[in-house]
Amino acid sequence: MTRETMVKNETARAGNETEELTDGFHLVIDALKLNGIGTIYGVPGIPITDLGRMAQAAGIRVISFRHEQNAGNAAAIAGFLTKKPGICLTVSAPGFLNGLTALANATTNCFPMILISGSSEREIVDLQQGDYEEMDQLAIAKPLCKAAFRVLHAADIGIGVARAIRAALSGRPGGVYLDLPAKLFSQVMNAEAGRKSLVKVIDAAPAQIPAPAAIRRALDLLKSAKRPLVILGKGAAYAQADEAIRAFIEKSGIPFLPMSMAKGLLPDTHPQCAGAARSTVLKDSDVVLLIGARLNWLLSHGKGKAWGEAGTKRFIQIDIEPKEMDSNVAIAAPIVGDIGSSVTALLEAMGEWPAPPADWLGAVKAKKEENIAKMAPKLMKNSAPMDFHSALGALRNVIKERPDAILVNEGANTLDLARGVIDMYQPRKRLDVGTWGVMGIGMGFAIGAAIETGKPVLAVEGDSAFGFSGMEVETICRYNLPVCVVVFNNNGIYRGTDVNAGGGADPATTVFVKGARYDRLMEAFGGVGIQAETPDELKRAVDAAMDSGRPTLVNAVIDPAAGSESGRIGNLNPQSALRKK
């Protein structure tokens, strides 16, 4: 159904007038379009099948997936890349539940996303009478997202969509759930009244200016530091305050450590980048400025051995959420405000700024050079089968030659090692598992990034991680997206060499089919499949894929014995006390 064939009804009104009518389907679409939403990610089915068809007819791009979790991940990363809420559309109950993991992950990572799900009728759900896919979806969603709303009347659709958009974007961004019962879509109302009921959201994410006293306090503390450090988190990348952040870093002269999704805000090859000396700068710094980064498990909660002598470090933190301060350790100089405004205020108040002590800069530079020299031989090997370092060394050169490409990365060893090996040169070009470390984001993120940016995407996947969303290679082929997937295939989770400890016929719990040909999965849907057994073969295959823009999957054969259990976070993997003995 298109706007030209919108529902009309001849009514028995005075003068025998024709009243133009609209319905819930069209009001949802019109509300999204009014607010600049141009893409919907989802899986069609009852009761939202026609909503997708009508949205497509109305000019919205509708990307249909094979699983709702992957569609939700695409919507979430779209929100991160565009600073507009990504929209995921699902069916009721099971479809809603499939999308819920992506919604919760978006909230945890502060990605603006709206999960819109059809649902069963309230009067039947509330009496638990057994409706089709009956479930109180609003109650289930509430604890896992930033806000949740249900719309019961067509006249409230405009307000419902507006509230969802504002909730997703304002303050600390996050996931929002919007519940649309099936009966809502067929509700009819006067078209002019419907148009008037729509709301265009104005200034959904207003600037939050930091207090001048907070800026002075932070600069006084930073200026007094003997070994200052700046940590950039993905919140700094989301803010798109790239020029202000670069200017502040360079004027201050302070070494900076980018978290994985903040890589590229300044190039990893920048002389002030301390990524190659991470352990040293965390342990030895005395004053640390956090910009869009949280002291969660990824930073050892700001305490413990990783941070050196207890109680000697002082923190400055920029965050739009006041409750984030003092969440793990005392924050000596909290700055509450949006990142763009806060960094600009710091920059404007700096005046003449002294260079950090030369002995600190020298120590950081020496450790960087030492670690880079140690790593270099591992990255240059051209052996078969490959190990993780030699394969990543080849991909490192791909990104160096194509800095505008987007890198999606997930796995255990594949993820942990790639973070340190592959340099990034531009902001928002590295997308990975983020705060939760959840596997399965790969194909959703790759599709969302390709759709929203039009840039070529290189998705580097562990074979285990790829299994969570691998069927979406059909989606990549169906939409002919410029995505090259590289599966690091070492025949298992962590390693492919484990054995059944009980001696039975079943394979070990972490072992996959040996010699699997993931490349043929892409070929099955009309894409290009390639097997690569050496770093040189891998580099040639990926270069060809990126040049062609065709959907491609490279099965990168990795030594089954390569890899360590749980990658670099093995300390989080409890082991039996008896096993330790």
Write the topology of this structure.
Layout: E1 8-10, E2 18-23, H1 24-34, E3 39-42, H2 49-57, E4 61-64, H3 68-82, E5 86-90, H4 94-109, E6 113-119, H5 122-126, H6 137-141, E7 147-150, H7 157-169, E8 175-181, H8 182-185, E9 188-190, H9 191-197, H10 212-223, E10 228-232, H11 234-239, H12 242-252, E11 256-258, H13 278-284, E12 287-291, E13 314-319, E14 333-336, H14 339-349, H15 358-380, H16 388-401, E15 406-410, H17 413-421, E16 430-432, H18 442-453, E17 457-462, H19 463-469, H20 473-478, E18 483-489, H21 519-524, E19 528-532, H22 535-548, E20 552-557, H23 577-580
Helix pairs in contact: 1-2, 1-7, 3-4, 3-18, 10-14, 12-14, 16-17, 16-22
CATH class of the largest domain: Alpha Beta
Neighbour order of strands in the largest sheet: 4-3-5-6-8-7
* Overall body shape: globular
Query: In CATH, what is the homologous superfamily of the largest domain?
Result: Thiamin diphosphate (ThDP)-binding fold, Pyr/PP domains
Would you report the number of β strands?
Answer: 20
Strand-pairing-aware structural class: alpha/beta
Largest sheet, described in full?
6 strands, parallel
Helicity, in percent? 25-40%
Give the radius of gyration: 26 Å
Distance between the termini: 69 Å
CATH topology-level name of the largest domain: Rossmann fold
Compute the average pLDDT: 94
Instruction: Please give the count of helices.
Output: 23
- What fraction of residues sit in β-strands? 15-25%
Tally of distinct domains: 3
CATH architecture of the largest domain: 3-Layer(aba) Sandwich
The poorly predicted ranges are: 1-16
